[in-house]
Amino acid sequence: MLNYVERSPLVTDTPLFHENFKKIQEIYSDLLLDNPGLDQRPYQPQLAAMYASRPNNICVGGQGLGKTLITGLIISLLLSTFQKKSPNPGTVQIAVPSLLFGRSRWLPDLLLLRDLQDCVEVINSDKQLLASKKPCWVYTHDFLKRKTKQLSTARPYVSRLIVKNKLFPKLLIVDEAHHLQAKSLRMQHMQILRKRAERVLLLSGTLADDLEHLHCLLKFCYRRDWKTSRSAFLQEFQTIKQSKTNYLAGEEDLVDLPKRYLPQLSVFKVPDYYTQMKTKVHRVTLNDSFVRSVIKLPEPRKRVELVELDLVHNQDYKNLVHRHLNDIRSCRDYRAEAKALQIIHPLIKCVNFPDGHVSTKIQRCVELVGEFKARGLKTVVFHNNVGSGRLVYSELQKKFGEESVVRLYAEDAEATPKHMNTDKREEALTKFLFSEKVCAGVFSIRLAGESLDLLQASAIIFYDVPWEIIKVAQATSRCVRPGAVNDFVEIVHLVAPKTIDEHMHELAAEKLKHMQLLLDYSPDQGYDPGRIKALDILDKILEAI
To answer: For every residue of 348-413, which 3-state class applies, written as one string?
Structure first.
């Protein structure tokens, strides 16, 4: 039964949908026949048929839905038609956040389909692009803005090389589309291909940081079909500065607004926003009944562990707070956020990676990994700061040995290598997932957006918290997803109480709560924005003195 299609405003009961669904169902049957170990998920061919029935789509889907496989079904359906019209290579072009994800996830999933087994290539150089004969390309978001290695004086960008050789996509797919910022070079070069693409599919677990970013993505996807101008869109939904005297009259006070998923969005306009967006953005979650009925998710066992700092460490933290006390009060009074962040960073460093000191928090992290190892569980430790990752990795190696711990990061000036390229990341990830000797991985939470699959990890430790709070949800979903090796995942947040660490965790919890509520808003839920903001951390520091 196509229950989710019936409730979706994106597709009506059209002959084209039913024709596409019939063809995709045949492709899906062959896929299951060729891969008997693959879980059968009836919603996948149905979603694929729905997206294939529209030229342009934005899909904001929960992690673990199988978006790559759904996309593969769409490509299988459309590729033969594209090839008849235009037999050029690169008929389908897929932009992904990193080559690691392109090689470890997109390529294996696409090659499961019969029609795509000789059609897909991961492209990483202009030479490879010009030599490729494959109709389906996978490359990174930043590939188009690279300079080519041609010997001419004017080295063109890769995007210009595609234009010069008329290698335009018929179908342009962008994974983790929220990385496309409005005025970025990445977006500018992607726009060159968008102008020639007949179809566009944007995939993401979230969508935008603010209303301007959201408008940019809607315009990129729907072009002339999105008729609302930027100024009209902002005027319709954004907050308006009001004096406190007007607050009781039903207007909101901008000063009191918290950091939330779309900070410009007026609280009072959320229902109207949701009504309009649901016709342009298709949201699917693991909690939807048609998904939950056919998948098995591990149970997330979440807990917060409060780890008191030792007396010396705690005194160092208090001394640092008192040293900056006047600046803290000044920032709090004048709401100087930039200055507040300058004060906050040394406090974070003092708590999470102090110089020349192994804190009780580090010790507890090592103990937890040992406890999980004794239960046969593989642990991933997510960290935000490079210094935290370096310190945790060092202490885990001392305890369990060099071969038992893997570190995954983008850049660390004090590590070897300083920059971890795609091959090194892929090697580290493979070792973490499949080596029986490895009991723990220390991963930068900034890489969580690369859509890594960490199904072998049954324990997560969040050592510290990022400012981009969506990464906490992304990191969790790397382990809490269909196909996990155990039927549970232990999730531990390590928090040093009565320090900035506790205040940041409170802020993180609030931002996650309201981000999720806005994504999955329904009129009967209402919308309560809460009252915790980044600058409120300063208030809490002062209260704790």
So the answer is: HHHHHCCCCCCCHHHHHHHHHHHHHHHCCCEEEEEECCHHHHHHHHHHHHHHHCHHHEEEECCECC
* Same domain (yes/no): 251, 180: no
- Per-residue pLDDT, 544: 72
Partnered with residue 302 across adjacent β-strands are 491
Measured distance CA(473)–CA(283) in Å, rounded: 16
| Contact residues for 325 (Cβ-Cβ < 8 A; gap 6+) | 545
Tell me the average pLDDT across 436-459. Answer: 86
Pairs from 36-40 (Cβ < 8 Å, separation ≥ 24):
38/112, 39/294, 39/295, 39/482, 39/483, 40/294
**Which ranges in 268-309 belong to alpha helices (H)?**
270-277, 289-292
- The average confidence (pLDDT) of the chain is 83
- Please give the model's pTM, rounded to 2 decimal places: 0.78
Nearest to 276 by CA among 226, 201, 209: 226
Q: Give the type of residue at 113.
A: L
**Helical axes 337-352 vs 536-544, angle rounded to 10°:** 50
Q: Could you tell me if 39 and 31 are in contact, meaning their C-beta atoms sit under 8 angstroms apart?
A: no
For residue 118, give both structure tokens.
Answer: 């000789």
Q: Is the pLDDT of residue 422 over 80?
A: no
Q: With a cut of 50, say whether residue 500 has pLDDT above it.
A: yes
What is the distance between the alpha carbons of residues 358 and 352, in angstroms, rounded to a whole number? 10
Q: Report residue 445 as tokens.
A: 């939470």
Could you tell me the residue range of the domain that residue 254 belongs to?
230-279
- Domain C-terminal end among 184, 209, 226: 226
Domain count, the chain: 3
pLDDT of residue 2: 36
Residue 512 belongs to a domain: yes
Q: Is the same domain home to 219 and 317?
A: no
Are 217 and 243 found together in one domain?
no
Q: For residue range 343-402, what is the model confidence (pLDDT) as tens digits? A: 888 999 999 999 878 899 999 999 999 999 999 999 999 999 999 999 999 999 999 999
The structure tokens listed for 243 are: 């004096």
How many angstroms separate the CA atoms of 496 and 500, rounded?
A: 8
Mark whether 173 and 246 lie in a shared domain. no
Backbone angles phi, psi at 46, to 5 degrees: -70, -45
Q: Does position 468 have pLDDT exceeding 80, yes or no?
A: no
What's residue 534's pLDDT? 59
Which of 137-146, 254-263, 339-348, 374-383 is most confident? 374-383
How many CB atoms are closer than 10 A to CB 402?
A: 10
Residues 200 and 241 in one domain: no
